[in-house]
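Sample entry copied in:
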Amino acid sequence: MGGHGALILALKNPGKYKSVSAFAPICNPVQCPWGKKAFGGYLGSNVTAWEAYDATHVVKSYQGSPLDILIDQGKDDQFLSAGQLLPDNFIAACTERKIPVVFRMQEGYDHSYYFIMTFINDHVRHHAKYLNA
């Protein structure tokens, strides 16, 4: 699914999730080359319609129950430096809406399996605290 898919599912289904986490998600696809290509192919040329599937835009109108968001990002991620992921836009939108997000920039990590393997237990613990709560 990817990190953006996880964010979108939680944000578009208020009350169904208490927590969401993502590894290096594409946070603002309407503003990045990958997202423009994908959304254009799947959703057509109406850019305004794309916003309903963009986590940064969806969080701006989120009115659900509190959502505990955890995002890990590798500082050496080639897609981050290429302007594909845009986590700062998502964080700014969350801050504007007073939606807390824990964003951890992980020094020395890129967009690899090793990055995910290193921090996956933190994500499992992040969600586990809400099971049977």
Notes: The helical segments are 3-12, 33-43, 47-50, 55-59, 78-81, 87-96, 113-128. The chain has seven helices and three strands. The mean pLDDT is 96.
